[in-house]
Amino acid sequence: MIYEIAGLKLEMFPKYGRLMHQSESYRSSGVPVMTVKPDPYDEARVVMDRPSESEREYICCSAAFCRGIIPYGRFFLHASAVVYEGEAYLFSGPSGTGKSTHTELWRERFPQSYILNDDKPVIWPEEDRITAWGTPFAGKTNLQVNRGVPLKGICFLKQGDENRIWPVTEDTALALLLNNTYRPKSNDGMNRLLDMMEQIVTRINIYEMTCTRGMEAAELAYQVMKGKRF
């Protein structure tokens, strides 16, 4: 079957319910440029803690997709992406730092906002724009939309007991991006990824933030990342 994900035509042959359901809105036609299928190494790695065949397929195809898109000028970020006023804001960080909790606050504070992807949005830097894209691979919540949206900013969350947000240097931003995506094993792949990230850190504002679970955290993040306040 042919799908189009983040502007890429690809072949994928889901057998089980979760991937079939999540990828339905990405169905397309045409000539694929890549094939997404489970890798035996990934299958062996997840078999012990993911007993469901459906879950294993979903995780392994997600990994294959994330590796496969780098030669095509795109990479994923482990993040929750929220869209408001036609722009995407990505919140990243290690598991447990509250990415989904924070973007849920945006949905409450800004009723017209929505989740583009709650786990693995794709970033596509082009010459004239940088966009964030929904993918079928959306973590535990399954929240995702098949859409590309201009990327406004990226924020890396840290645990803390106060709401505070600050811009980071390009070097720090690069390190944070690398720590929250797939890093290719080959030199060519890594160079391609670093080239893309160079475009991101020089063209997109990137922040770190400590935040509470209160609504004021979403308001502060929006005001600063939108450029209305610092």
Structure, described:
The chain is an alpha+beta fold and about 230 residues long. The chain folds into 2 domains: about 70 residues, no CATH class; about 150 residues, Phosphoenolpyruvate Carboxykinase, domain 3, CATH 3.90.228.20. It has 7 helices and 12 strands. The chain is globular and about 45 Å long.
Q: What name does the CATH topology of the largest domain carry? A: Phosphoenolpyruvate Carboxykinase, domain 3
Number of helices in the DSSP assignment = 7
Q: How many extended strands?
A: 12
CATH architecture descriptor text of the largest domain: Alpha-Beta Complex
CATH class categorisation of the largest domain: Alpha Beta
How would you summarize this macromolecular structure in one to three sentences?
The protein has 230 residues and is an alpha+beta fold. It has seven helices and twelve strands. The chain has two domains: 2-68, no CATH class; 75-226, Phosphoenolpyruvate Carboxykinase, domain 3 (Alpha-Beta Complex), CATH 3.90.228.
